[in-house]
Structure formats: structure tokens, C-alpha cells
Amino acid sequence: SNITVVADLSKIADSGMQPLNYEIIYPGDVPDNAIKVESRLPDRVSVEVEGRSQKNLEVKWVYSGKVKPGYTPDKDSLELSHRYISVTGPTAVLNQIGNSVQVTVDLKDRDENIVNEAVSYEFCDTKGNPFKAGELDTSRLELSATEVKLSMKIPRLKEIQLVVQLKQLET
After folding, report:
1. Each residue of 13-49: pLDDT tens digit?
2. What's the pTM value of the predicted model, to 2 decimals?
3. Contacts (Cβ under 8 Å, ≥6 apart) of 101
């Protein structure tokens, strides 16, 4: 059986170092009057509290690769399952993030429509550039979505022979 020390965090309203009173909890089989506390050192404990913030990040996209010959991506038909990703977490982390996330639409060797394909996104810095792997600690972020689903038409090109007949107009 262990003695437990409990501090009430529910009344903390500000970020920064917060001193707290604590209560000593004895194991269930030890009566409260069986032990006498002669002193408490330290008499208070301190906890470091981080501020929390929330941001809505716009989902932006870039294209990579080329479709197979004879096909063309209809970029106007691109549909995304999310236009914004809501992010909540430590203010210090959110301050590093700009106003967007980026998805990459991979067109390499495609020869059919993209239908509800799940793709991950990358957080962008304040200049709009994606973070490199390991540059941003996202482990404590709460996200409204962890991926974006996208759809886009990739029609086949067709050649149509046109025959033009010219007629002279009589004047």
C-alpha cells in the first residue's frame, strides 16, 4: 500500500508556474488518526501549466506527377472532404503553425478517376511551407480530422476528326 499526494488542478485558470496545496491520502486500511503528520516539506507543490489554443487551418493542395498519356486531370472537379481542419493544443505549438495544411494530389501514372482517396496532410509554417519531418511536435494536438478524402475526374482524351467545308457566299 502507498501513501498518495493529491493536488486539485480544477481551479487553475492561468498558464505558467502554479503553486498548489496538496492533500495526503492514506491507504484504505490505515485509519486517518493512525498517522500524525509533523511537517510538510515542501508545504506546496508547483506545476507548469501551458496555455491552450484552437485554430482552423485551411486545406490547400498541390499536384505531383503526371497522368498517363491520353488522359488529362480535370483540376476544376477536385473535391475535398474537408476545407478546414480544426486544431487544439498548446499555444506554443500552434504559434509555430501558419493558417493552412497541405495535401498532395498524386497524379503519377493515373488513368482513372480518383474517388474518395484518403490522403494525409502536412502542417504549414507561418510562411505557408510544409514542415519537414520532425520539425513540429504534433503529439499533443487534437485534430478534427487526421486525413482528407479527395475525388477528381481524370477523363480520357479523344481525338475527333473535323471536316471543314468552305462555301463561297454569293454577293
Report:
1. 888 899 999 988 888 788 777 888 888 888 899 998 8
2. 0.73
3. 57, 58, 59, 60, 85, 121, 122, 123, 124
